[in-house]
Structures are given as C-alpha cells and as structure tokens.
Specification:
Blueprint lengths: L1 H13 L5 H8 L3 H15 L4 H9 L4 H12 L2 E4 L7 H4 L7 E6 L9 E6 L5 H16 L3 E4 L5 H11 L4 E4 L13 H10 E5 L11 H12 L2 E5 L6 H12 L4 E5 L8 H8 L4 E3 L2 H6 L56 H7 L7 E2 H8 L3 H13 L3 E4 L3 E4 L1
Parallel strand pairs: 3-4, 3-7, 4-5, 5-6, 7-8, 8-9
Antiparallel strand pairs: 1-2, 2-6, 10-12, 11-12
Length: 398
C-alpha cells in the first residue's frame, strides 16, 4: 500500500500516458526512493522539465489518500506499476500506466491467450454479427477477449464473450464510475462478474477525446493478437494497430474481411498491405498461436464453429446443413478460371458469380452459405483478382 500511494501521487503530478513512469521504475529500486530524493534528486535524473519539477514539488502527497478513499467507496482495486499483480505485458511498453484501477477481477493476462477486438462505433449488422460471433467463440475456447467498451464492434465482442460465459476485459478512457455510454452500463456491470473493467484514470475522471487514443495502447499491450473488424480509412482502430506494432513489431494483427465499401476500407487495406492476416472465423486466430498456448481449453475440435453459431438473427433462414454447399458444374461456365487452388467455399461462391453483375442475394441463395461467410469469401476473391464489386451489392468475374 505504501508504494501505491507514491505511484498515485506521481500519476497526479506528471499525468497519464507518459514515458516518465517507466523511466523512474527502471532507474530506482522503488518509487518511494524517488519521492524521498526530493527536488534536487529529481533534477539530477535529467528526466524532467522545469514545469514537471514544479508539478512534482507542488502536488500534495495527500492526493493519494483522496483517490484511495474514492476507490474504497466503489470497491475498486488499485494495482501499481511495481506490484507483482501488474501485467508484465503492460509493464513492458514504454508508457505503462502508473496505476491500474480495476472493477471485478483482472484475469491472468500474461499466462492466457488474449485477443483484442477493435472496430468502428457505427458498425453495420455485418460487423456486429462478426464481432459477436468471434467474441463468443474465442471466449468459448478459453481466450480472454480485450476491448474498449464502446458502441459497435467493442460492445459486440464483449457481449459475445459474456454470452459464452467467457472472460473479457473492458478498458475505459475515463474513470470506471463515470456514467459514460449509459446504454452500456449493464454490460460493464456484467463484465465485472466475468473479468474486469479497468482504467488508468481514477474515479470521477470524465471521458475526453484524447483519452481514447491513449486507452488504445493499453488494449494493444494486453493483447497477444489484435483483430480489426470494420474500420474505415481513418478509423481510430488503425491507431490501435500502429500502437500494437510500435510496442511489438512481431505482434499478430488480424483483419476480418468485409465488402468493398468505404466503411471497410481500412480493414481490407490492412489485408492488402499484408499488415494483417485475413480472418474468416475465430479458428484462423487460434491456429495462429499453435505451439504458443498449448492448453486443453483451446481444443478446436470440441468448439462450435462461426458459421454454426448464428447468434444474431439475420434476414432470411439459414440452411439446416451448412456443409452441404451447392456448387455448379464447371463446364456450365467456361469463362471462369479453373484449377486455381480454391477451397470448397471459394469455388462455391466463385462459380455463382457471372460475367454480368450478379446480386449478392443471388449468390447467397445459390451457395446456401450464411451471409457473413459469403461476404468474407467475396473479399478474398477480390484480393485474388478473380471478382470485383460493381453497382453496390453486385459482383462479377474478372
């Protein structure tokens, strides 16, 4: 508790999302030693500007007691940078939070497979369904789902994990007790029973626009891999990707393929630029960590598949037997390319697309596949230069 007070004081003096906390952590045996050194010692480190020295000198130590009282009122846990409970993966970045505020129980982040899921707040039903299903299946497989608690993709992935009775962590850009996004209040409450809601900001800190890019670095640091679902050209999700790669150039980045639409431009571009691995269902993510997290929890054979768990109803009725894909005889369509190494699903979709524009609904009807699978395969075929999107929701072969 003693070191906690010093880190609380330090965070109030220097602020959040700063490299100074890690520098002090590396330089001193404890934050208490730094505090007791006083102004002369602080100047000798060469780490702080005159303005920062002034803030360190003028910030009363009693501010720590005020924060502790507030956290005790709400039953929040506080985990300081020096604590053995502090996630090692978060401590390893250049600008870790001085203190983490936790509602619920923070899972063993360092020894479990963790996947961050990010995407637009203004998500389409396609993106919502994809993130919910992936969140559900990942959590069902023993994976901890990390996201930011925002509307759209974030909320869908959290809710999917909760529906699977899995573990999920919500990283906020404000104090945990702040009534930000009231419509998500129940979800945040539910998360505290199946994981944790966390923040680097003490209680009563309001949500500010600059808090959210800072929050993203925590999501990426806590995640072994990062999945982007539905991101436009200038999406904030791409900031999270950049943050992840700055923290670890080897970090696994995944993108869920979407249609040729401005709302999916960023997602699809990540795939085209080979920044992200193409994902069509949750097994693509888990297989990427083979031999890294060897655990019976990640037994793919015992888990339901994305295209079977149609947890969010979509217009129309899904076929009873999705494996019974209806295909066309190749001789019927001589203009299609043959023997090009397509999977069964890819062939099913490819040979339903004609020279003239073919409506998406027609392709779905002809293949008997769920809409999310058809959309993912069409995007993959576009990337392979076999089809192109024309006239909005129509496709034709190239």
């Amino acid at each position: 508790m003693t070191n906690l007070k010093y880190w609380l004081w330090f965070s109030q003096a220097i602020g959040y999302c700063t490299v100074k906390a890690k520098q002090v952590y590396n330089l001193y045996d404890s934050i208490e030693e730094f505090y007791l050194g006083g102004e002369k010692e602080w100047r000798l480190t060469g780490l702080f500007s005159n303005n920062e020295i002034e803030r360190l000198s003028s910030t009363p130590f009693s501010v720590a007691n005020d924060i502790i009282c507030a956290c005790n009122k709400y039953c929040y846990q506080m985990i300081e940078l020096e604590s053995p409970e502090y996630p090692r993966c978060l401590r390893s970045i250049d600008d870790p939070p001085s203190v983490l505020y936790v509602s619920g129980m923070l899972p063993d982040i360092d020894d479990r497979l963790t996947i961050g899921v990010v995407g637009t707040r203004r998500a389409s039903m396609y993106g919502i369904k994809a993130s919910y299903n992936i969140g559900y299946n990942l959590a069902k497989s023993g994976v901890t789902v990390i996201s930011g608690g925002a509307l759209g993709i974030d909320s869908s992935s959290h809710k999917g994990a909760l529906a699977a009775d899995g573990v999920t962590v919500c990283v906020l850009g404000c104090g945990i007790n702040v009534d930000y996004l009231r419509e998500n209040a129940k979800m945040r409450s539910d998360i505290t029973f199946r994981g944790a809601v966390i923040s680097e900001y003490p209680p009563d800190t309001p949500a500010n626009s600059y808090h959210f890019p800072a929050r993203n670095r925590i999501i990426s640091a806590l995640s072994d891999g990062l999945l982007v679902v539905e991101a436009a050209k200038k999406s904030g999700s791409l900031i999270t990707v950049n943050s992840a790669l700055e923290q670890d150039p080897q970090k696994k980045i995944f993108a869920y393929a979407g249609p040729s639409d401005p709302h999916f431009y960023g997602t699809n571009q990540l795939i085209k630029d080979r920044v992200a691995e193409l994902v069509t269902d949750y097994t693509d993510i888990i297989k990427a960590f083979d031999n890294v997290y060897a655990t019976t929890e990640l037994d793919l054979a015992s888990q339901p598949k994305d295209d079977i768990i149609d947890v969010i109803p979509i217009k129309g009725k899904a076929p009873d037997n999705i494996s019974g894909i209806r295909t066309r005889d190749l001789t019927e369509v001589p203009v299609h390319k043959k023997d090009i190494g397509l999977t069964e699903e890819e062939e099913a979709v490819y040979f339903c697309v004609r020279e003239e524009p073919t409506q998406l609904e027609k392709i779905i009807e002809s293949t008997g596949l769920p809409v999310n699978r058809v959309m993912s395969v069409l995007t993959l075929l576009e990337l392979k230069g076999l089809v192109k999107c024309v006239q909005g929701r129509s496709y034709q072969i190239i």
